[in-house]
Design goal:
The structure is a single chain. By secondary structure, this protein is of the alpha/beta class. The chain is built from nine helices and eight strands. It is globular and about 55 Å long.
């Protein structure tokens, strides 16, 4: 099982130092938030993207994918009533897909709650249709780049659009593109789903809807720093790896860094590796 660390956890270290530290901790890769690389990710050139890939590879890491996609530039939205705003947003999404491919990534995670929440005086279904159109357009680019663009279900506390894996799967089915899937974020699932995370995985991963998993506690800290039990989650994923139902990365994405970013990252990988080793001993 391969684990990636979401790189914003190691800010404000320069990217090369993030790679060095993540490798020493025992991670297999970094899942990158584009806003950590440049104030406006649209300014990142192909050459710079290739250089970032080499920085990771020099430490034995991969840039596994991108997340936190629409933080910058400002003013983006996939649900705005202004079609020009949505068009600009789709151009950003498509460019990020291209950059991800150049960096060697496999997937992108579209969370970005503020940029998809239903605007005032807009019907929920209207906002969903606008979002569906944007996702359909970027799915074409993802397919052409041989990547997967993942719609992330988020808890109702963060957004009022696409809160469950079932809702995301319905959107994925409506678009029906190999470039578009959904994913499971343990923190969001623990807050917004009625089923356990392992039950969600058992339901949706074999169906082909889920292409990625992020591990974190519903308290928004790292795995092992809250009440969620990750042994059943990893056991489920390991079983699905054996069956070739899940071949993706597991990414560590805490939001509340205790005691600090590096300390949280180190604790998480030790905890997760320990669970995997323990499960292997009992096979």
């Amino acid at each position: 099982m391969k684990f990636a660390l979401c790189n914003e956890v190691l800010q404000p270290l320069p990217f090369a130092q993030q790679c060095e530290l993540a490798a020493r901790m025992g991670y297999d890769g970094l899942e990158v938030a584009p806003f950590t690389l440049a104030p406006n990710p649209m300014d990142i050139t192909d050459a710079q993207a290739r250089a970032l890939r080499l920085m990771a590879e020099d430490q034995g890491l991969a840039i596994t994918g991108l997340h936190w996609l629409l933080v910058a530039p400002s003013g983006l939205s996939i649900v705005s009533s202004d079609a020009k705003v949505r068009d600009v947003t789709v151009r950003v999404m498509r460019r990020l897909v291209e950059l991800c491919a150049i960096m060697g990534g496999q997937y992108l995670v579209h969370g970005s709650p503020k940029q998809r929440s239903v605007p005032p005086d807009t019907a929920h279904e209207v906002a969903l249709e606008r979002a569906r159109d944007c996702f359909a357009r970027v799915a074409v680019t993802a397919r052409d780049c041989d990547l997967v663009y993942c719609v992330e279900p988020l808890a109702p506390r963060e957004t009022d659009l696409i809160n469950t894996v079932a809702q995301a799967a319905q959107l994925v089915d409506a678009i029906a593109s190999p470039g578009l899937k959904t994913m499971i974020d343990c923190s969001a699932a623990g807050q917004g789903e009625t089923q356990s995370v392992e039950s969600l995985m058992a339901r949706w991963i074999p169906s082909g809807h889920v292409a990625h998993v992020q591990v974190n506690d519903p308290n928004r800290r790292g795995p092992g720093q809250g009440d969620m039990l990750f042994a059943p989650i990893l056991q489920t994923l390991l079983g699905m790896q054996v069956m070739h139902q899940y071949t993706g990365i597991v990414a560590v994405e805490p939001f509340d860094y205790v005691p600090d970013g590096p300390g949280c990252a180190a604790r998480a990988i030790g905890y997760l590796r320990g669970i995997v080793e323990g499960l292997a001993e009992h096979d």
